[in-house]
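Our consortium's second objective concerns turning raw sequence data into structural hypotheses that experimental partners can test. To show how far this objective has progressed, the report includes one record in full. It was chosen at random from the queue rather than selected for favorable results. The single chain below, 201 residues long, was entered without modification.
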Amino acid sequence: TSGAWGPASSYYENKHPEPAKLFSGGLSSVQLLPNDNILILSGSSGYAFELTPKNDIVWEYIVPLKNGNQVNQGSTISINDNTTFRMYRYPNDFEAFDGKDLTPKGFIELNPDINYCNKLVKTENDFQKNNTNIYPNPSSDIITIESLIDINAHISDINNKQILTFQLNVGKNEIDITRLPNGLYFITTRDGLVKAFNVIR
């Protein structure tokens, strides 16, 4: 027989807003996440990103290495400078993490800009539909979350380690973050990533 195997057309197609960024002559990986988003790695450029079913970018990351050596934040990295075989996201309850200290140990890149990670692409979620407001950001001891609905939420660190779970009630909710070390954190509801905030003292 000749011709292409079925199906005649794709059931689902992912498209990066800038298609050239998704190209890689080899390596690379794709992972379907529990929230129906897709984690994609373009291996020849060490470029990873999470894409929603609507093709919105949730976050993106470039491996900050050049020929295996650290580079400064914002450095230009060419194709094949930071070739990465694959990237995989593990859930918080992954058995191999039991009894392990997953506290962040710092940054991979040199001279990091800790405020750079606040530049997140917005996607529709419970907080946006709810017109939820979070302040101050950055914060040092208390964050205030104003909510129009009752909803469960939690705070996790940059390694997706869940740190604090709480119930948001209608109105102002004050969350004590004095136990959190300096760094970037995420407030998440049942449908995924919603807000990022910094702890700076």
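The partners drew two points from this record. Residues 126-129 form the longest helix (4 residues). The CA atoms of residues 136 and 143 lie 6 Å apart. Both points have been shared with the crystallography group to help prioritize constructs.
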